[in-house]
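Practice problem 4.
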């Protein structure tokens, strides 16, 4: 096993204090294993998570990096499947709870980040598109179904996908109908994450939010929702009917024109949330 240099929390803090306030530490992004994911909790704190097989099942490992330096890690073992909102949530929560390398304030922000849906929607689209290739590569209905089932199991079995016990006894037409619906759902997840790419006619209905913060959170998750003075709809967010920002080309395009105290508060919330999520910000005056 490769040895990695670790530093104590006190050393990290001293390093951070020694860095001039006008400069950001220069460090390389932590390596991400194949099949793993990198979660940027702030401009200094990153967690890299990955999965690997064990004798009796599999395990999730999460490694904490501060300024690009590995400082702590945690792991969780599983027998067959996880029960979590998104992949790696449990092991990252365990790491944040147990580590002494970050402050209580940083822990609080990290927990808030991890409690939100951090599902990687792109992986579902990839699985769906690969499964759909069965219609091209195979010729008979049986061959097409075997291809789709194999691809769906490979991509989703560890994420909770279970085929019914009577699957093999079902007619090929019924298998095809069910799997095509799964594939459609996988591709739809990508569309909801990038609302500017989907047909305007298929726009989700706008639900009523319990508060303004829910609207901001839903905006970054691609959901349509509104409160008394904010609305997230089709990849854009509005304040009193004025468009304030949109998610476009993996960036936050922000209207930085001054309107009111309430709208300025929203603009700052969007800036902070985009930075926390590692989303580039493009500011402009009005749309």
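Answer key:
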């Amino acid at each position: 096993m490769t040895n990695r240099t670790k530093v104590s929390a006190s050393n990290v803090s001293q390093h951070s204090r020694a860095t001039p306030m006008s400069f950001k530490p220069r460090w390389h992004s932590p390596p991400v294993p194949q099949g793993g994911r990198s979660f940027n909790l702030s401009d200094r704190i990153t967690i890299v998570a990955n999965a690997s097989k064990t004798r009796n099942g599999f395990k999730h490992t999460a490694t904490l990096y501060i300024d690009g330096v590995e400082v702590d890690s945690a792991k969780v073992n599983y027998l067959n499947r996880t029960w979590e909102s998104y992949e790696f949530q449990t092991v990252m929560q365990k790491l944040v709870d147990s580590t002494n390398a970050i402050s209580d304030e940083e822990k609080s922000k990290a927990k808030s980040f991890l409690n939100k849906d951090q599902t990687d929607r792109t992986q579902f689209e990839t699985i769906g598109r690969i499964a759909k290739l069965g219609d091209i590569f195979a010729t008979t209905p049986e061959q097409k179904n075997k291809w789709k089932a194999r691809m769906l199991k490979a991509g989703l079995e560890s994420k909770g996908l279970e085929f019914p016990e009577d699957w093999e006894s079902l007619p090929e037409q019924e298998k095809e109908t069910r799997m095509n619906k799964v594939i459609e759902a996988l591709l739809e997840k990508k569309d909801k994450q990038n609302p500017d790419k989907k047909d305007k006619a298929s726009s989700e209905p706008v639900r009523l939010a319990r508060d303004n913060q829910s609207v901001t959170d839903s905006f970054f998750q691609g959901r349509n929702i509104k409160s008394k003075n904010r609305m997230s709809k089709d990849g854009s967010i509005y304040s009193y009917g004025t468009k304030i920002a949109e998610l476009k080309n993996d960036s936050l395009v922000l209207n930085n024109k001054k309107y009111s105290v309430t709208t300025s508060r929203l603009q700052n919330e969007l800036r902070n949330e985009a930075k926390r999520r590692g989303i580039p910000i493009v500011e402009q005056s009005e749309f």
